[in-house]
Design goal:
The chain is of the alpha+beta class. Helices cover about 25% and strands about 40% of the residues. The protein has helices spanning about 5-15, 45-55, 120-130, and strands spanning about 25-35, 40-45, 60-70, 75-90, 100-110, 110-120.
């Protein structure tokens, strides 16, 4: 397995435990995008990424994001197919089924993630990458 895939795998180990406390893996000027889901948008920098993600996770209890498959492209991108689970803090309702199979794309340069795109709907990521599951 490549160095980039191992690097992204280490990010998911913490997230799989529900630990989102560190962004040391991110370049200080990271480009962060949530491509779909409840709050799509784009942000720049670690602080903005953390605030955007904090807003998303604040609505959910026991959010877990587990990586199911890692791939690597020659250009340094690492797409990851994910499976998520959570319950609404206020409602107790489980994460909608269309958001449980997601994906993320990591652009890595010099040992840091320079761009991170999150997809709540895996089919959107696969279409953007021109891939099939």
């Amino acid at each position: 397995m490549s160095e980039n895939v191992e690097f992204v795998r280490s990010v998911y180990e913490a997230q799989g435990r529900g630990d989102y406390s560190s962004a040391e893996w991110a370049d200080p000027e990271i480009e962060y995008e949530i491509a779909d889901g409840p709050s799509p948008g784009r942000w720049n920098g670690r602080r903005a990424m953390a605030e955007a993600w904090r807003e998303i996770i604040s609505a959910w209890r026991d959010l877990r994001i587990d990586a199911q498959d890692y791939r690597e492209f020659a250009d340094g991108r690492v797409p990851v197919l994910t499976r998520s689970s959570a319950r609404g803090k206020a409602s107790g309702v489980e994460l909608p089924p269309e958001w449980t199979s997601g994906a993320a794309i990591y652009d890595i340069r010099d040992g840091k993630v320079t761009k991170h795109v999150v997809y709540f709907d895996r089919s959107h990521a696969l279409a953007d990458l021109d891939l099939e599951e």
